[in-house]
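Before anything else, study the sequence and fold tokens given here and see whether the fold suits the sequence. Record follows:
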Amino acid sequence: MVVFSGGAVGGDVAEARLMADHARSALRYEGRVLVEDRSRTTWENIAQVVPLIEDARRIVIVSQPAHALKARAYLRRRRPDLADRLVRAEDYRLGEGTLLKPLLAAYGLWTLRRLTPAERRPSRPGRRPSAVGAAWFRRG
């Protein structure tokens, strides 16, 4: 199952709905999909999806690298008991968004400055699905 999380930020359609539609149409994902479309921040993404992922064996947060790191840190803060189930996704892919990467990296580092060293630790290694869009959480 895949949980897409994100409300309408830059328009009328929720980010989660856009990602879910893309997964179904362009990526041909045929599995179960849940959409959380109320959150407007990363903290809210995590707060809203926790009830949906509590029983998951593995939790994979997929996004651009700094955003995924921040989301994993927020999950550790909110529910440390779920942190052991975190598996890192393939956040960085060579050649993807080449022109935006430096800007996103600088902004991401700036937003991560408040994380503790423990929150910056990597998640356990595992099968790493490719990043597709903003935060989506894979349950299974």
Residues 73 and 119 are 5 Å apart (CA to CA).
